[in-house]
Amino acid sequence: MGFAPADTQPTDHPKVSVIIPVYNAAEHLPQCLQSIVDQSIGFGSVEVVAVDDGSTDGGGALLDAWAERHPGRIRVVHQENSGAPGGPRNRAVAMARGEFLFFADPDDYLGTEGLERMVAAAERNASDVVLGRIKGVGRSAPVTPFRRNVEGGDVFTAKAVWSLTAQKLFRRSLVVEHGLRFAEGLRLAEEQVFVVPAYLLARSISVVADYDCYYLVHRDDFPHLTQQVPDPEPFYGNVRDVVGIVARHVPAGERRNSLLYRWLSLEVLGRFGGRFAALPEPTRRRYMELADELMDTCFPGEVVESLPPLARLRCRLIREGSLEELTALTTLVPRPKQAAKPKPAPAAPAAPAAAPCRTPRRRYTPSRILAAGRRRIGRRLRGTGDG
Fold first, then answer.
1. CB atoms near residue 360 (< 10 Å)
2. Is residue 343 over pLDDT 60?
3. pLDDT at 15
């Protein structure tokens, strides 16, 4: 276990409160906590507010042991399991004393200079939100917002909506002034009702793109919520709430549409991917119905028309209620390319052969796409699918 440096003493007003919702992460939690203790900003400038959300693996006792070793620096509260991280985060926000808040997950860890660089960017630019580059370890991580540093931009210049997870630095006064809170009981995208209004209300947004501030880790033994299929009603209800926040803060037009594109392409259409065909028919139909309602009320036609061709086709099938064709389309996942075979040694020149008769190439049309998908579904149902 880690120890705070001897020359760092607890203060009543730490610079950063690192908030961690903890549920059954005892194996990985020490790495997360140690990465906070080792921050270059100095552990005396940091407090950890950890909420044990009813852990059953000894994680609560582990937190208590760390808090005993670091009195005043690590604060722990225990509660019955809430089923999702939003509630524990909200409780920790109410307890936090730092000038800034940073949200971490117990199975991830921070880069050693992460907090120092993000706080410096916030103070340099009077920024209320700072995005520090996220590095995926065994899993994907957002790329678009982290192509370059941004000094005091906004939601548009920072391309911030392409990273909506909670692992950001937020000025606590912004959170308190506007009463920002996470959705509770929701197991996916619960942070968006917190992060999106923070982006839209911030005086400025900065991006630290030249340093890995946070490591987002895939753990085979850890139940990542992003890999689960959410219930359609609460999930799309949350999407509607978030899109409504955008509509209230950004006037109708091209700038709003550029933001809405993200939710239509990722949240709405993202549910109709490779796992969609395996869902029960009533669940698939409900996803389609709710997506149709959202597109009808929240997304102008210009946003739909700006999508790539296959995404527009998905939208058309959703609007038409064509569940069978929509399901077929989701099975059309490109097969991996075979490794190139080594070229044989060149042979002696042969007499020129007659040019072969070329067969016209089939057109890549929606009808052929859907027919191929239906054939693939049929093979899978008969147990002869090609995977």
1. 5
2. no
3. 98
